[in-house]
Each structure stands twice: as C-alpha cells, then as structure tokens.
Amino acid sequence: MKKILAADIGGTNSRFAFFQIDDRGCLKLVKSQWLKTEEAISFSHLLDNLRSGGFPLRPEEADIAVFAIAGPVEGGVKCSPPFISWDIDISQGEQEFGLRRAVLINDFVAQAYACRSPIGEAAEQIKRGHPDREGAAAVIGAGTALGKALILPDGRGGYLAISSEGGHASFPFESDEECTFQQFLLNELGDTYITWNRVVSGKGLSLIHQFLTGKKLEPKDVVTRMLPESVTLQWAARFYGRACRNFALETLAAGGMYITGGVAARTPEVVTHKAFLTEFVRSDTMAQVLTSIPVYLIRDQDAGLWGSAVYGRQKLRE
User: Fold this and answer.
1) Contacts of 160 by beta carbon, 8 Å cutoff, 6+ apart
2) Band (9; pLDDT cuts 50, 70, 90)
3) How far apart are alpha carbons 162 and 96 in whole angstroms?
4) Does 58 reside within a domain?
5) Rounded CA gap, 97 and 92, in Å?
6) Same-domain status, 53 and 146
7) What's the pLDDT score for residue 203?
8) Mean pLDDT over residues 266-287, rounded?
9) The domain that contains 94 carries what CATH number?
10) Cα torsion through 213, 214, 219, 223, rounded to 10
11) Residues 208 and 152 in one domain
12) Quick one: CA dihedral 176, 182, 187, 192, positive or negative?
C-alpha cells in the first residue's frame, strides 16, 4: 500500500497529512496535523518539527512527498515564497532530507487538484450553471493573499493544473468612490500600485473596513462586525465577485469556478452575498457566458492536502 506525505505550506500555517492508496487506487486520509509556519526557521526545521510532533508518517517513509507552497515554483524543486522568511530547495531531497521521492508544487496547483477529489465533489454550489467536465475549471481563494490556478483534463485520464501569480496583478478600481479607496490604499500601504492581494484577502477586509468606518481592526474583528447589511461586507463581496468574474473570463472556465481559502471558509457570506453574485455576472458583453458558469465553495481547509495527495497519486501512476 503506497504512502503519500502531503503538505500545504502557507504564510501562517503549514498543514501535513498522511494518505494511503488502497487496492482500488482510492485515497484514504490517515492523519493530518497543522504547524505554525513562523515557528520554523527553515524548511529543514519545519520537517524536524513534524517528526518531533508525533506525526505517524516520517517524511523518509513516504513513497512520495508532495509539498504545496505559497509562491512560484521553479522546476518542481525550488521556491522563494513571498510571505515566508525562508526558501525551499528539494533538488537534493534524498541526501538533505531523507526523502525517497519529492516534488514541490504551487499551493493553488494543489487547490486545483483538490477540485478533482472527494473535497471538490462535496463542494457547496453557490451559483447554478451548466458545467462542462471536459472544460477548464478555475480555482481562486483569498487568505493571506489571493491565489489562482486552472485545471483541465490532460487527455490521458488525469489532469493538468496551471499555476498563476495573478494575485500580484493590478486591481481594477472602477467608480469615483473606489478610486478614492485606491488613493487611501496607496497612502496607507506606500505601494506604487494596488494588487488583488491587497484588496481581496484577510488584510483587505481590514483595509476596506478602515476606509469606510475609520476604525483599524484585525480581520477576525472585522468579521464579527459584518452583518448582512454591513457596507464592509457589501464592498468585500463585490470585490470578490469581480475577482472571480475576471478570472472566469480570462480562462473561459466552462468547467466551473471553485472558491477556496480561509476568507470564504470562515466568512462564507463574502461569496454568498447578493453583491458577489451581481458582480460575478455583470458584463456588457459576456453576461450569458458568466451565467452558464457554476460557482462552488470549498470550505474544507484541508483541501490543499487532498490536492497534493491527488497529484502525488498521479505521479506514482506515471
């Protein structure tokens, strides 16, 4: 029975899971564990913390280890994550870390593969549509930042996921009021331009609330004040809807739009609010296309682990 070590390493938390592949090729989650990323001073130290934390699968015992990381990946072995203080290089994985076989993938590539796992199949549908299983599916999620990826059939019975760093692209402000918000952000953050990461994220919730109310709060405190009639919620939902709409059009996501990440998992009202749905289908030219695209919400915060495991199983089959 093959063993997979799956990991989803983010700026705040690092999640690990032990998966087994049964005789039918199905994945079974044996055990998962969360660690604080900032408590490790290096990738090696993070693995040491896992070993010392009573996790039942030692990294060196796995048939394949798949590490999903929040940042651009080079050659499946290197990454300099923008929101973590240390780099990862597993090009010498066996010699340095004792890993039999290891691969590094972008964290939203893992989220994309999760859409083709039991997690994706159990996702909550928040907008109806007519999905094409042979078409591309778009995956988007706000947490510490905004992640994006695309997944499509590879023609061989598996799937191909394509990563993106679209969260670092410029945010499109539209109205006079939004342009005033843009200037507020430029003054507050000292950036030369405002990205999606700044607006559609946990920190973005705080900045929206500060602009609208003058009160500077942590994201978790903003969430407790976001009643259905809250203007902060309306703005956050509109911006999230715009992010999803733009990405759906950029990728022609006929296979559906999947929303994941901590913001929507903890505050689903951001994507179930009327302002989100109105903004998602708002287009002078492509409203009919957008209406046909279903939107799903994945609340399970272990989705990245399942996606890493799906990818690992596919690599073992190859």
Assistant:
1) 151, 152, 153, 154
2) very high
3) 28
4) yes
5) 8
6) no
7) 95
8) 96
9) 3.30.420.40
10) -20
11) yes
12) negative
| CATH number of the domain within which 135 lies | 3.40.367.20
Q: Which region, left, alpha or beta, applies to residue 56 given φ > 0 means left and ψ of -120 to 50 means alpha?
A: alpha
* Tokens standing for residue 216: 């500077």
pLDDT at 70 over 90: no
pLDDT in tens, 141-164: 998 889 999 999 998 888 999 989
Is the Cβ–Cβ distance between 253 and 247 less than 8 Å?
Answer: yes
Regarding whether 64 and 135 lie in a shared domain, the answer is: no
Residue 9 lies in a domain: yes
**At which residue do the structure tokens 């060196």 appear?**
60
- Model pTM score: 0.90
Are both 307 and 268 inside the same structural domain?
A: no
Residues in Cβ contact with 36 at an 8 Å cutoff, skipping those fewer than 6 apart: 12, 13, 14
Are residues 63 and 9 part of one domain?
A: yes
Domain that holds residue 81: 2-106+302-317
Give pLDDT tens digits for 205-231: 999 999 999 999 999 999 988 888 899
- Separation between Cα atoms, residue 182 and residue 176, nearest integer Å: 10
Assigned domain for 293 exists: yes
Q: Is the pLDDT of residue 247 over 90?
A: yes
Domain tally, the chain: 2
- Residue 177 confidence (pLDDT): 97
For residue 111, being part of any structural domain is answered with no
CB-neighbour burial class of residue 7 (10 A; exposed 0-12, middle 13-18, buried 19+)? buried
